[in-house]
Amino acid sequence: MIVTKEKTLEEILGFLTPHKKILVVGCDGCTTPPRGLREAKTYTMLVEMSGKLKNKNFECKATTVAKQCDNHDCATTLTPQTENVDAILSLACGVGVQTLVEVFPEIPIYPGQNTVFLGSQDRDNATMYEKCKSCGDCLLGETGGVCPVTRCPKGIMNGPCGGCVEGKCEVPYEIRDENGKVIKTIQKDCAWYQIYERLKKVDRLDLFVKYRPPRDRIVSGSPRILEGV
Amino acid sequence: MGEAFSELMKRIKAGKFVYTGELEPHKSTEIAEVVEWARTLKATGKIIAANVTDNPQSVGAISSLAASYIIQKDAGLEVIYQLRTSDRNRLALVSDLLGASLLGIRNVLALTGDHIKKGDTPQSMSVHDLDGTQLVDLIHKMVYEGKDLSGNEIHGPRPQFNIGAAGNPNFEPVEAEALKLERKAKVGVDFFQTQVVFDVNTALRFLDAIEHLGVPVLIGIFPPKSLGQAEYFDEFVPGVRVPEEFLEKFKKFKDLPDKKERKAKITEYNIEYFADFVKEVQKKPVCKGIHIMAVGYPEVIGPIIESAEKG
Fold this sequence. Notes:
The structure holds 2 protein chains of 2 kinds. Chain A is 28% helix and 23% strand. By secondary structure, chain A is an alpha/beta fold. In chain A, the strands form 3 sheets. Chain A has a 4-stranded mixed sheet. Chain A has a 4-stranded parallel sheet with strand order 4-2-5-6, with helices on both faces. The model of chain A has no long low-confidence stretch (mean pLDDT 95). Chain B is an alpha/beta fold. Chain B has a single domain (7-310), classed as TIM Barrel (Alpha-Beta Barrel). Chain B has helices at 7-13, 32-43, 64-75, 90-102, 132-145, 174-186, 200-210, 227-236, 244-254, 259-282, 298-310, and strands at 18-23, 47-52, 78-84, 107-111, 162-167, 191-196, 217-221, 287-292. Chain B has an 8-stranded parallel β-barrel with strand order 1-2-3-4-5-6-7-8, surrounded by 6 helices. In chain B, helix 5 (132-145) links the parallel strand 4 and strand 5 (162-167). The two termini of chain B are 28 Å apart. The mean pLDDT of chain B is 96. The interface between A and B is medium-sized, with 26 and 33 residues.
């Protein structure tokens, strides 16, 4: 799923200040945590209340679409609601925001979220972990289902490197506050150590010892397109 | 094993046990101190070549290529030019390697390098277009096929490099390290230099695990000048463990009130400990030398080697 993190209210208000009538658009697709109608309603209240504190009267409406990255979906669902709207605040990922811009080129559209990564959810610990970089050249078949492109900070193909000690990576996860200050670090498992363990378990160390040549960066070079879908 | 282009490799091929040293250029516009240390290493008459570090611990420093050239020219000591993939893509690596060839460099140590976040510019982008093993592959293709990794031809005579790579005897499990080094052997590494190791049994176990690869190994040692340095290795250098008996000895030396006597005792113990260490690892045929990382501690280098040579 696509993991997003809300932008600060201060940044959002900075975007919206020149406008009055705001349509807050959620997305019922893969954005995680959920950013649907309920969240859109919450944002309308937050924006209106914060505006009032600054003597600014916003008029917000909340709505949502099934998938904000689907241009047809956005056009059919949102067109009737965009009349007399000064600006749109999108709660979707960056793809959703850009799709809205293409569907409604005449309306200023702002992101309410920072799109952070493609991740999996650890419900027990209420934590999301980045697991895929959508590199377009999936290696999981030969790395025991553990992605070195994403989970090794160096993204190396022939690890582990010298920074792996007792199965742990030399580069910790860093949890930062809204000012970018590190508030917590977590020692994480070395992806290549996990690959070794996993391949050993399934008796496929032949894959571990295999030399992997340099990656063809053309495959993952942005921007990419995929036709015929 | 490929051709021997460097003095280092020629000696290894001739069956001689070799010793290499370490030179660390800093974030500075001056290099005189490093050249002086290179002269000191050369004056021992035992050190055949020295590594010139490339942004060690991801701390930006004088280009290892520029430093390597100056050291070879001014100190007359052969260098092992360290090159890491953390800071350069494959285009820049080829460019630097072609420059190194022109400047008469004959040994390259191919490294992945520490992550940028570990250094003094953590906001920077970590490149890693290649990893250390792929860099070995690149250099091998340049030397033996006259091509880069994309198959583009390199004009003129082929560069003459002997290719080194890093190994870590401290890695657990040693079987995984051996498989990793097998990959490097497959793509044409000429010699391995290792991370610092203090425990002789760890070194011997490592040598046994990679003996079948047939790649000469230079085991890394670092005689510490003080208890603080020994403890630093034990606690902060990834994977390095200093044996308890070693630390205990240094703790006792620390209690000696006379600074001169303390220094003498530490040096004496380092010589005894590491000469014995060298004698032991030397028994393994795959061990072809020792990489002594004793920056600023010249008084131990000659005596360790002489004492080990006495047998």
